[in-house]
Amino acid sequence: xxxxxxxxxxxxxxxxxxxxxxxxxxxxxxxxxxxxxxxxxxxxxxxxxxxxxxxxxxxxxxxxxxxxxxxxxxxxxxxxxxxxxxxxxxxxxxxxxxxxxxxxxxxxxxxxxxxxxxxxxxxxxxxxxxxxxxxxxxxxxxxxxxxxxxxxxxxxxxxxxxxxxxxxxxxxxxxxxxxxxxxxxxxxxxxxxxxxxxxxxxxxxxxxxxxxxxxxxxxxxxxxxxxxxxxxxxxxxxxxxxxxxxxxxxxxxxxxxxxxxxxxxxxxxxxxxxxxxxxxxxxxxxxxxxxxxxxxxxxxxxxxxxxxxxxxxxxxxxxxxxxxxxxxxxxxxxxxxxxxxxxxxxxxxxxxxxxxxxxxxxxxxxxxxxxxxxxxxxxxxxxxxxxxxxxxxxxxxxxxxxxxxxxxxxxxxxxxxxxxxxxxxxxxxxxxxxxxxxxxxxxxxxxxxxxxxxxxxxxxxxxxx
Length: 465
What we know:
With 465 residues, the chain is α+β, with helices and mostly antiparallel strands. It has two domains: 13-178, Bifunctional carbon monoxide dehydrogenase/acetyl-coa synthase(codh/acs), Chain M, domain 3 (2-Layer Sandwich), CATH 3.30.1650; 184-407, Bifunctional carbon monoxide dehydrogenase/acetyl-coa synthase(codh/acs), Chain M, domain 5 (3-Layer(aba) Sandwich), CATH 3.40.1470.10. It has helices at residues 87-98, 119-123, 129-143, 158-178, 220-229, 252-261, 315-320, 359-365, 371-374, 386-395, 401-409, and strands at residues 25-30, 37-43, 54-57, 68-69, 71-78, 104-107, 114-118, 149-155, 189-193, 205-207, 235-239, 243-245, 250-251, 287-292, 297-302, 331-334, 354-356, 429-433, 445-449. The strands form six sheets. A four-stranded mixed beta sheet has the order 4-1-7-6. A four-stranded mixed beta sheet has the order 2-5-8-3, sandwiched between helices. Strands 16-14-15-17 form a four-stranded mixed beta sheet. A hairpin with a 4-residue loop joins strand 14 (287-292) and strand 15. Helix 1 crosses helix 3 (129-143). The longest helix is centred in the middle third of the chain and has 21 residues, at 158-178. The radius of gyration is 24 Å and the shape is globular.
């Protein structure tokens, strides 16, 4: 049953995690095909906010034809106990509350928002963004009583979206910069977030001063503020506990809370490593760090990159390889802000392990890349495949090249192989192989190994064209 009688579609937590495929889509707002899109919350004085007001600048849902459009959500709030520190906290909840609406899919955050409205819901009457505004206002004020007044503006006019986009980007940067001087060792607690568990049930985001949320929308300060105003909400305090490993970033308190919040599925987390027990990923991450075994280093690719990476895989396939709340060695969902941290992939050598990234991302974080590494990391303008990547790294004497020489010079290890006996015989081992990027067992092949020993120095999985 819907929460609200005057909304033409159902509204409830049951619709969180709903996916709307393109054939079922009436219209797409934002998304990967659109350059300008954002969601922004601003705290105002009470006299600047008209409570309950919803404004639409540009065509409404019913006026749009099927396609992808620039889009902005601009929310202004007022309340005696509100301050700027809470803007990011309120902003991140837009994702949750939008997904309560039947046939309204909201993905990602900030400048990466991706919204689809289903044909079926439009046919049922969800033909105006004013309904969405009403839902947001009611849910926000119900869940966060410190919001006393709220007005919502939806922008579909391309020029107006572009104009407000600049303000949004400046606001995000101001918030992010605030946390950069604080170190993980300086605080007694971290914060956790499970906002994305509707899409990734075992994912728990651990937010530290030096490791932003994967989505890039919640800093340590945002986490602290969220836990304060809504102690029983999706963002919560994590007592660090004992530091087991300062290089990999393992803490007893983090392990305990992640195990509990993931239903026992995830038992350990290394915050600064992409191997062993890497931090889980949802699907809202801004970028993916992915291991390229041919060169013993990591590539980085962000959501907006439309081309293929040097190993022949696009962002979508690499994202499928790490999403869903899993721990996958060598695949790591990250935020852009985490790349500005001193703890960035610390266990793997940080920037010395990065061997490729898109030009757009490199430009965003260039001031945080060690000067001696900037010219050693190629972009899509320099290389397009593995062979070109190898040549580039060798020519620039990238630190990973030293690993190749060790591999070549290292003598092979000889191991005695004993014949299996009747009593020591092991049952056959069955391995099911799926196509790279597959999200469900659909096809592939089986390999059955009987009484076999396999020694592999590396395994390379490459899509066959």
